[in-house]
């Protein structure tokens, strides 16, 4: 491609070039003092950009969490925050959700366009290509078709590294062509991601570093890990700059790095100035004074930082990840607001102005304090099709086997699977047990809801008559684990379904790839019609919005329980009355002038109204600071 030169925001006064600086351009172990071909180098505890003293003041902004039509707006807001760099992860599964299709780099997945846009706005770019990214993103960014295999993830296992190599063959040359050495804005690339929190296979890290350099990366390479001896032992490499990730105690992290990596600059690859939320838990926030106080400690004495997140965006569709804790499976909410300085809808918060002041930004921000919203209103939510009738109506390949097929066996990443069997249940009360369900299942007998089965409550009471029944189990994936040893765990009915101690055999399993549904599938489901008129219906419903000029809005479903929401055929995300999030952010580009259709798939209890609000409701706040050590 042709070389492109970008104007850049200058945050440090240029000084005389000071060679030689440390860089890792050749990927060799212990490479220091190599030719400074990239923009960023370091020497005597300081970062330099083309020889001039420099602080990396970065903000995390993920192209995959922001509508492409809003990329430039959000990039400008990051610049207004007083930052000179944008960093982004690259989620492999977002680009290649299926193994039998080539990775996509068009439309929302056009990372090259995103990087160019950052450069056009005068900012540098840091790319974090993984292959594992965490990021509270489904499966930590790893494709479920890969983690379905019996391989050692994030290791030197050839089955893993060969797949990564094929992915990097597609991705890395695109990044390399946009480095500063080629006239682009990319100044640094991360090797893996917080690997020391996972493992200690240094051969794997060296192989990844080599995979980047042989595919053309010439800019600064770095690792990023939590500031503990255990994590740094596992995740760092000789000759590659060590950065840390933290939410507090920067002075302690600075001392630890100085002792372990003398002469290297203090770089915080992620400063958690906010935090994410799980369904059913409080809305996590970070106080302005707390966040800014830690930030000041990081950037003191030339420290470099990336604010995670500067702008969080949204886990559109079913891309939100999950964690595993004492309470079991903890799915992440649809919003990724993260109490960031730039809110989910682009609003400039009190934290934005405090951070801006701490970083010494001059003049007023160019961006408006708050994007325009549609006026608040209510519209009827009309029930159109029953839950089972609508789901059964959409054509999908069905697998017949003795046992229920898992998501992985069906090649399904996210969504639901409808399992059907016809066991004969003797007369009287019996136990129906779903021995291993991931993550939640609605159980129906002859079309009537029997109950909900979850890992902590897998047993339901069922009354038999001696005849065969139509047993249907709607298994739902609530989010793939994104951090820790649970990455790659399979979904669906993983164990047998029992009537008392007898196994139910002979199943038909139908995948419901809801994340891939278009208007065609939704139209088919809606046309199935209601099978009954229950007092509290579930299934498919529609609301029609009449819009003069598209603008942002926040959708609420008072009286509804749990389900999914599409806007003009685009899967906005999950709603759930347990909160903390009670509104779904709908950006203006998803709407059009005239009539707009909102489709709701309700799993528990359908309300009668869709509300458009002009403010988000993310739940009662709780102060939260994540610490290591």
Strand and helix map with partners:
Blueprint: E1 40-43, E2 46-49, E3 52-54, E4 57-61, H1 71-80, E5 85-89, H2 92-95, H3 111-120, E6 124-128, H4 144-147, H5 158-176, E7 186-190, H6 202-214, E8 220-225, H7 229-235, E9 241-246, H8 250-260, E10 267-272, E11 283-285, H9 288-299, E12 304-311, E13 322-325, E14 328-331, H10 350-358, E15 377-380, E16 382-385, H11 387-393, E17 399-401, E18 416-421, E19 428-434, E20 437-438, E21 440-445, E22 448-453, E23 459-464, E24 471-476, E25 492-493, E26 497-499, E27 502-503, E28 507-512, H12 519-526, E29 539-547, E30 553-556, E31 562-567, E32 570-576, E33 584-586, E34 594-602, E35 609-613, E36 621-623
Parallel strand pairs: 4-5, 4-12, 5-6, 6-7, 7-8, 8-9, 9-10, 10-12, 11-36
Antiparallel strand pairs: 1-2, 2-3, 13-14, 15-35, 16-29, 17-28, 18-24, 18-28, 19-23, 19-26, 20-25, 21-22, 21-24, 26-27, 29-34, 30-33, 30-35, 31-32, 31-34
InterPro entries: B-gal_1-like, BetaGal1-like_ABD1, BetaGal_gal-bd, Galactose-bd-like_sf, GH, Gly_Hdrlase_35_cat, Glyco_hydro_35_CS, Glycoside_Hdrlase_35
Enzyme class: hydrolase
Keywords: Glycosidase, Hydrolase
What report would you give on this structure?
With 629 residues, the protein is of the alpha+beta class. It folds into 3 domains: 40-133 and 145-274 and 294-307, TIM Barrel (Alpha-Beta Barrel), CATH 3.20.20.80; 377-386 and 516-613, Galactose-binding domain-like (Jelly Rolls, Sandwich), CATH 2.60.120; 397-512, Galactose-binding domain-like (Jelly Rolls, Sandwich). An 8-stranded parallel beta barrel has the order 4-5-6-7-8-9-10-12, surrounded by 5 helices. A 6-stranded antiparallel β-sheet has the order 17-28-18-24-21-22, with no helix packed on it. A hairpin with a 2-residue loop joins strand 1 and strand 2. The longest helix is centred in the N-terminal third of the chain and has 19 residues, at 158-176. The protein starts with 39 loop residues before the first strand and ends in a 6-residue tail after the last strand. The model is unreliable at 1-5 and 10-36 (pLDDT under 50).
């Amino acid at each position: 491609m042709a070389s492109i030169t970008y104007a850049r925001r200058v945050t440090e006064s240029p000084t005389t070039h000071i060679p030689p600086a440390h860089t890792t351009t050749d990927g060799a172990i212990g490479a220091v003092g190599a030719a400074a071909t990239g923009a960023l180098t370091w020497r005597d505890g300081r970062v330099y950009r083309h020889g001039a003293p420099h602080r990396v003041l970065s903000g995390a902004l993920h192209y995959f969490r922001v509508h492409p039509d809003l990329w430039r707006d959000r990039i400008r807001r990051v610049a207004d925050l007083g930052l000179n760099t944008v960093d982004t992860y690259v989620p492999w599964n977002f680009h290649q959700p299926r193994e039998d299709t080539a990775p996509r780099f068009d439309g929302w997945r056009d990372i090259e366009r995103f990087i160019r846009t950052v450069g056009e706005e005068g900012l540098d770019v840091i790319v974090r290509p993984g292959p594992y990214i965490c990021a509270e993103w489904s499966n930590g960014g790893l494709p479920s078709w890969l983690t379905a295999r019996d391989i050692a993830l994030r290791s030197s296992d050839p089955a893993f590294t060969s797949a990564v190599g094929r992915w990097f063959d597609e991705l890395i040359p695109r990044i390399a062509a946009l480095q500063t050495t080629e006239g682009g804005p990319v100044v640094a690339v991360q090797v893996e991601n917080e690997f020391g929190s996972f493992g200690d296979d240094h051969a794997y890290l060296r192989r990844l570093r080599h995979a980047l350099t042989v595919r053309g990366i010439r800019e600064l390479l770095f690792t990023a890990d939590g500031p503990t001896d255990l994590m740094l032992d596992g995740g760092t490499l000789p000759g590659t700059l060590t950065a840390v990730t933290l939410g507090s105690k920067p002075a302690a992290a600075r001392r630890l790095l100085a002792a372990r990596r003398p002469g290297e600059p203090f770089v915080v690859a992620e400063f958690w100035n906010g935090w994410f939320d799980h369904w059913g838990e409080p809305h996590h926030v970070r106080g302005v004074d707390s966040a800014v106080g830690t930030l000041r400690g990081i950037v003191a004495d030339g420290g470099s930082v990336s604010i995670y997140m500067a702008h969080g965006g949204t886990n559109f569709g079913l891309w939100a990840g999950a964690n595993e804790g004492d309470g079991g499976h903890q799915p992440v909410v649809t919003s990724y607001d993260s109490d960031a300085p730039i809110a989910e809808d682009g609003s400039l918060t009190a934290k934005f102005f405090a951070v801006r002041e701490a970083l010494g930004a001059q003049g007023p921000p160019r961006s408006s304090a708050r994007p325009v919203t549609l006026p608040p209103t209510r519209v009827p939510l009309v029930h159109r099709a029953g839950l089972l009738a609508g789901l059964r109506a959409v054509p999908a390949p069905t697998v017949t086997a003795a046992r229920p097929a898992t998501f992985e066996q069906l090649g399904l990443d996210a969504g639901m699977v409808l399992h059907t069997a016809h066991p004969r249940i003797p007369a009287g009360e019996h136990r129906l047990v779903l021995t291993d369900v991931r993550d939640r299942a609605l159980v129906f007998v002859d079309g009537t809801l029997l109950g909900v089965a979850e890992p902590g409550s897998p047993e339901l009471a069922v009354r038999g008559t001696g005849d065969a029944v139509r047993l249907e189990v709607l298994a739902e994936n609530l989010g793939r684990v994104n951090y820790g040893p649970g990455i790659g765990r399979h979904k669906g009915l993983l164990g047998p379904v029992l009537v008392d101690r007898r196994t139910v055999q002979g199943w038909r399993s139908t995948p419901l790839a809801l994340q891939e549904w278009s208007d065609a599938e939704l139209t088919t489901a809606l046309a199935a019609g209601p099978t009954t008129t229950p007092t509290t219906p579930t299934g498919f419903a529609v609301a029609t919005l009449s819009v003069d000029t598209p603008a942002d809005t926040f959708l609420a479903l008072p009286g509804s329980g749990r389900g999914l929401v599409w806007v003009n055929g685009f899967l906005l995300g999950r709603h759930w009355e347990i909160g903390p999030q009670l509104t779904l952010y709908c950006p203006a580009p998803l709407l059009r002038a005239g009539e707009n259709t909102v489709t709701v798939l309700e799993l528990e209890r359908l309300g009668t109204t869709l509300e458009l609000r002009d403010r988000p409701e993310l739940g009662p706040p709780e102060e939260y600071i994540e610490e290591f050590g």
